[in-house]
Amino acid sequence: VLPMIGTALLDEPIIEEIVFGKFGRERDLVEGSFSNTIVLVERGSDVKDEIVYFSEKENNVANVGGKALVVYNNQKGIFLGELFHQFAPPDYRPRIPVLSMSNEDGEFLKNIIQNRTTATLNVFYNPDFVAYFSSRGPVSPFYIKPDLVAPGVFINTTLTDAKYNLTSGTSFAAPHVSGAAALLLQKNQDFTPKEVKSLLVTTTDFVTDAYENKFPIETSGSGRLNITRAFEANLVILPPALIYNLSTEKETAREDLKLKALDGSLGKINAEFVGADDVNFDYKQQGNVLETTVSLPSESLGEFQGTIVIENKNVEYHVPVVIHKTKGSVNVFEEDGKLDFEVLYPEEWSYAKISVINKDSGKTYTTSVTPKKDSSISVTEKGEYW
């Protein structure tokens, strides 16, 4: 759930019975007992062209003695609601907390409260919630997206005619990151784009929900932008994120991190993996390279996430990690611009489609293999391929 704009924080939780109040109109609250309850209502109305504002629903429920109001969406997903708007009475002030809920959760709750149900409702400050409209990743198994997140919800920004307005969207998160990059380049104009990205991505703060549960990488990337830590960082880590690919044929994988100390003195590196319990992590520092290896128990298959936490000179850096482990694997042999493929799979199979993608141009080469027929692709363009 999300508190609507205008809802005050609570000093203590509200523990009351939940009841259904249809659409929260006056006529919906005539029959039944709503005093000292948490009232669940649906967004909008069942009458064409009828507008029932959130402020109106709140006022109606407060008038019948309700202690709190939960408005669930009338379409898929959750929403951010506002109690204050241009059509509200000039003297309007919310009297009870109002929360928004997704359609799916609302219908589920509506179902279970047919039997008497008591709930605990609390409203507290947790600004690190990733907005429902923020794009989720990944768009490819070969890299991690998003890289990070930045403030983009209810940003107090300027309007024409010397006014201010609370506005949300990625159009407001992007300037935060652009400004952070500009500050880093002001500090050192010789930074490359990859170095700027590394400093921003590896110095973020973890994003957690109100119960300290960390958001997954496909939702928050490495975490929330922290320009202070990025500006004061001394370590550039490339790449700033890692993907390991394991299979039943290949149960250990190694990936290297290149380290660059901005003050010229690298010193000792300590590292640990924080994340999925199944993951076995090890590392070795060889000069300015950190060799990392991961493995999983033979029975563990699927996707596993975590973070390599690197400590250098009492400063902490975060490298997000995704580990894929599948039953099958593809061995690639390169010779004179020709790629030969071998598919290894522990069970019976009949056909496999293999695509090779140029990272920069996006050009894709495709072939197919069977247990009785290997195949190859001729690659003429130089570059990195996936």
From TrEMBL:
It comes from marine sediment metagenome. One of its GO terms (molecular function) is serine-type endopeptidase activity. Residues 125-208 form the Peptidase S8/S53 domain. Pfam families: PA, Peptidase_S8. This is Peptidase S8/S53 domain-containing protein. The keyword Protease applies. Residues 33-107 form the PA domain. Keywords: Hydrolase, Protease, Serine protease. InterPro entries: PA_dom_sf, PA_domain, Peptidase_S8/S53_dom, Peptidase_S8/S53_dom_sf, Peptidase_S8_Ser-AS, SBT.
